[in-house]
Design goal:
The protein has 422 residues and is of the alpha/beta class. Helices cover 31% and strands 21% of the residues. The protein has an 8-stranded mixed sheet with strand order 12-11-8-13-16-17-19-20, with helices on both faces. A 5-stranded parallel sheet has the order 2-1-3-4-5, sandwiched between helices. A two-stranded antiparallel ribbon has the order 6-7. Helix 13 links the parallel strand 16 and strand 17. Bound molecules: cytidine-5'-triphosphate.
Amino acid sequence: MKTMLEGKNVIIGVSGGISAYKACILVSALKQAGADTHVLMTEHAEKFIGRATFEALTGHRVILDTFESEEYLIPHIQLARTADLFMIAPATANIIAKVANGIADDMLSSTFLACNCPKIVVPAMNVNMYNNPATLENIDKLRQRGIEVLEPDEGHLAEGISAKGKLPEPAVLYRAIERAIAYGKDLLGKKIVITAGATREALDPVRFITNHSTGKMGYALAKVAKCRGAEVTVISGKVNKLSDSVETSVFTGIAPANGVMPMEGVKYIEVESAKDMLEAVKNEYKDADCIIMSAAVADFRPQTLADNKIKKNEMQPSEDGSYSLKLERTTDILKWVGERKKDNQILVGFSMETENLIENSTAKLDKKNADMIVANSLRVEGAGFGTDTNKVTLITRDAITELPLMSKEETALNILDEIFSI
Ligand code: CTP
């Protein structure tokens, strides 16, 4: 499966902190994702981790001193020229001070100064060193120059206390790289609202009616839209959120995941029922350029919600011995927005069918006043609930475009391309 970072040139600068070991996990993930990755270390980093580790992981020599290279004539310039992104992780107070002040006295700092590509610095150090005005001033300097500086995590530090200064998990660093370089920023200035996942309609405090939606398609749309520069709000039903400490192959998108990973910078509003989702959509849709309804919303909910657990002996059977639940319709949120949206707002619905896919889905365009329906069939292998792939047909008033089977992220990319060409 193609990843978002395939073919990108990434430099990871490693300075001398105990969390340098986490850079190994990051570098391994980048390599698995098909990014050509170079590691540059400071002399102090070598006290924590050997360069042989990074050389084995990247397949490239790790250069510490600008004058030691046999590969290139002017190594820092050669490397800087082709880089798509430079991340320093972990970044000690010392390397932050150096790069903030233009000091270039080793391979890492010289290459950083020579690079024009997007740069991300990830501080990791003792809490007092981090909070020292000198460090904060240097961080501020970097940010003012357009260099992204991530916030360190709070948690257990090497000195035995719990405080701010921890290097974030490799999955978080990986997502920061994806956000920075996976795509061009062609959706800057666009606001996109996405509904995702399944709703739950409660019967009593214990039981509810729901469906098989996992939220993967909606979360993939949010991730790609965010990477392309959009302001993204996800209104999410209950989903299984994966922790950042999952296997690298899961956060790179290479192995199937049994849940979703939220993306930093996306606003997530968590809801439970169709009614909650409608309320959240009412609050969010008005200034959106595009509203994408990928959630699997319950069409019916129990007519009454019991305050206490319904006991078996409280249920009355019918004459034939069967038991019935009284249901009522929920509001069709897609239709609700379709009746109110402005002409310049693009409304996209999803349609999952088991038969007559195109005919049934095309009818929804008019019925719900949508601009596009993303139709997928439960009968196609690799499409539908819980998979990491999808095979959809995009239906607009002008065209019907059948996309091949591809990852949900690639599907999201194609859906967004089509939306913004309407
Ligand atoms: N949808 C919604 N609110 C609902 C039900 C569905 O917003 N209460 C949206 C879904 O998010 C999705 C689309 O409508 O974008 C799916 O519609 P679907 O339920 O398949 O459409 P129906 O016309 O209700 O289809 P069917 O007749 O098959 O039930």
